[in-house]
Write a structure and sequence with these properties.
Elements lengths: L3 H10 L7 H29 L15 E2 L4 E2 L3 H5 L4 H9 L14 H6 L23
Antiparallel strand pairs: 1-2
């Protein structure tokens, strides 16, 4: 199972995984610059228009929540294993805590267990397998 951070990094590094580290860093830098420029233009336009659509990108409508099977029509509950706003509202209406629906992978004790096992030491470069890709 991956975390949101890992999935975010995977999307940033998509298409650059097999590049040497220098090219990888350069590519990531330029992708982030483009992202900041795009978002800056978007929010400048929003601020200049003096109107903000808070529901932009969120589907509107009614969503069915099944607390027993841990699913919601919006799909976020199943995908993230975290209660979405619909699940929280459903729990509130039946006077139940939404916290029981938070997956154990998000618990601090689970995160700390990652560090219980020792990490392998990175050996000298002489022991690394040879690089067999096209060099740019």
């Amino acid at each position: 199972m991956t975390t949101n951070l890992a999935e975010s990094m995977n999307s940033v590094l998509k298409g650059t995984r097999n590049l040497p580290i220098k090219a990888l860093v350069k590519s990531t830098y330029f992708k982030l610059v483009d992202l900041f420029v795009q978002r800056g233009k978007h929010w400048n336009a929003v601020l200049n228009s003096e109107t903000v659509n808070h529901n932009e990108g969120r589907p509107m409508g009614n969503f069915m929540v099944d607390l027993l099977n841990k699913c919601c029509d919006c799909g976020r509950f199943q995908a993230l294993h975290l209660p979405c706003s619909h699940v929280i509202a459903a729990c509130s209406s039946v006077h139940q805590s939404y916290q029981v629906y938070i997956s154990e992978v998000y618990q601090v004790s689970t995160v700390f267990n990652v560090y219980n096992e020792p990490f392998q030491v990175i050996r000298n470069e002489d022991f690394w397998p040879s690089f067999r890709c096209i060099k740019l």
